[in-house]
Amino acid sequence: MTETGGEGGTTWGSGAVRATVEAYWAAAAAHDWEAFGATLADDVVYDLPQSRERVRGKERYVRFAREYPGDRHIRVERIVADGEGAGAAARTSVTVGPRELSAVHFFTFDARGRIDGVTDFWPEPYDPPADRAHLTERY
Amino acid sequence: MTETGGEGGTTWGSGAVRATVEAYWAAAAAHDWEAFGATLADDVVYDLPQSRERVRGKERYVRFAREYPGDRHIRVERIVADGEGAGAAARTSVTVGPRELSAVHFFTFDARGRIDGVTDFWPEPYDPPADRAHLTERY
């Protein structure tokens, strides 16, 4: 990782941020919870805005990820790594049994480049409203 | 906007990408559809993965945005602008009548820095599963 200091504090480049997010997903996919924990700050906060659940701290969050039920296969579709190194976003496709879900994830980073905030969204499929069918196609 | 050329094509900095996303939201909030359209490429594609709806082209997409029912108030909570200038992500809080919803948006950009892809997610609230209450708190 390249550290580019500034008077206002430490700034991480988008390359370092991207690499950390990739390491986070690779570790989760491999069920390598030590490597997963190494991407996280000790005081990481995990938020689920849809259920308003929060998990505080690396130990609890690693346990949360480890205990998550079902056999999941996660494919990372896109990572957006902030040019100022302060954040990242990702889209994943998660297969849980026969279901394929899209998930969206936002990350923030501490001054050492570790993930100190994760916010996950799990958007569910819905039927399209009829009043816009004149403008849309289905895919 | 600053254009930093490269052999592989044109790369837009994260500052330019962020400014375009900010202009997109400001125009939507002001119902200024000319300014909204100016942020878009002619061949912009708008995707809603939850309903698998797609809107093709600037004209249709501006109309889609203009015709969207209800009085919406949109607050931009976070913009992540890719350091390589290829994409961006945003979180917004959208108030539609008495309801407040979180929305998530991904953007891609053409070589001239205009938005050529928008993907929106509308995650709905859900009740937390009981089997992880030992690790979570509510907020």
UniProtKB/TrEMBL annotation, chains A, B:
Q: Where is the SnoaL-like domain?
A: 21-115
Q: Where are the transmembrane segments?
A: none
The residues the entry assigns to the signal sequence are none
InterPro entries given in the database record: NTF2-like_dom_sf, SnoaL-like
In Pfam terms, one family for this protein is SnoaL_2
Q: What is this protein called?
A: Nuclear transport factor 2 family protein
